[in-house]
Amino acid sequence: MTILIPVRRALLRDIPAGVWALGFVSLLMDISSEMIHALLPIYLLTVINVSPLAIGAFEGVAESTASTAKVFSGVLSDWLGNRKALAAIGYGLAAFTRPIFPLAPTIGWLAAARFVDRAGKGIRGAPRDALVADISPPQLRGASFGLRQSLDTIGSFLGPLIAIALMWSTGNNFRAVFWVAVIPAFMSFALVLTAVREPNRAKSLQLEGVSRRPRFELRRLGAPTLWVAAVAAVFALARFSEAFLVLRGQSIGLSPMLAPATLVFMNIAYSASALPVGILSDRFGRVTILMIGLLLLTLADVVLAVATSVIGVGAGVALWGLHMGFTQGMLATLVADTAPPELRGTAFGLFHLVTGAATLLASVIAGALWQMAGPEGAFLAGAAFALLTLAGLLPVRRRMDSVGLALALTVKTFCS
């Protein structure tokens, strides 16, 4: 990698307060979400009696719903020039669906609740990411996305930890845990309403040399942004829903109370790596880090395929978490780097749409392979696809590096 992006040292105090606020909004909502989602696969399998294939389809449809909604909310946030309002609507929808999970008597009710919850995630996702890009100085963009992702992921491992403690204290009462998950969801909604401030976007666009009102033509996003979306879609095919990590834990003998610990280990590794990796990417570029992430995913899949003990599964999910830290913030930062400032919401919407569609396909395939060949078949197939994705990224690397060079020159001009 020959691209060196000239940035000053990324210190936590330099990251804007708005990014911190959005990070804590994400943290609280993820505590709520993961308290439910860490238990939901086992709840569906053991209480509602659905198959692994159905769980894969259930999770894939839920996530693709979120991704589809992100397109429309992203475009709308560009057109209205108000990202906070749409983000607040998304967080509000998620909060108000939480009571349905403990009350739902059938799979139909759970599917509806999950659908609306993920629609809320979709509505808030692209405007929130575009808002981070609007707030962040270009020379701290990787660190800003890394911080938000890190705080978000801290919530992702606190949620399962709380779920485990509550399952222990309530005698494996799933519905009691689902009721407690309502509280942080409403706290998140209140925080986004009171602590997040919309920047003066017209002034920001003027500073970035943009004066025209956005028009929604795909070609206006530009080839670099479309390349990032294509790479992200192929990348998403190499990984599937984290619900299968929970099922892997159960497959080697973890009880329903302890199976969510797989997500705890994964998200500890994820949150610990996201911010340092984001800071490094501001100095050394994004593409090499993405390639390291693919190697980590390949290793994680192999370890999870052959693991026969709790230690083996723990090592596999920790490697999975590291791969997330090396990739998810990088892909979002690349979208922010390459998209026209006036169309950032649209760009993030497209990014989430293609990755969501790929995640749906990957999750359904993983569920089918699990049902036919067991967890070994599902994870070994994931490893093979990760290696194919890495091979496909190599010829694109030069094109993506040219994007990094253009960004470096822009940041250098901006900072001089």
Outline:
The chain contains 16 helices and no strands. With 416 residues, the chain is mostly helical.
| Count, helices | 16
Number of folding domains? Answer: 1
Q: Work out the number of β strands.
A: 0
User: Globular, elongated, flat, extended or rod-shaped: what is the shape?
Assistant: globular
Low-confidence stretches: 1-10, 404-416
Assigned CATH superfamily: MFS general substrate transporter like domains
**How far apart, in Å, are the first and last alpha carbons?**
24 Å
Q: Report the β-strand fraction as a percent range.
A: under 5%
Q: Do you know the CATH topology?
A: Growth Hormone, Chain: A
What is the level-2 CATH architecture name? Up-down Bundle
Helices and strands, in N-to-C order? HHHHHHHHHHHHHHHH
Which value, in Å, is the CA radius of gyration? 20 Å
Helical coverage, percent range: over 70%
**What profile does the largest beta sheet have?**
none
- Summing up helix and strand content along with how strands pair, one would put the structural category as mainly alpha
Look at the structure and give the CATH class. Mainly Alpha
| Overall pLDDT level | 79
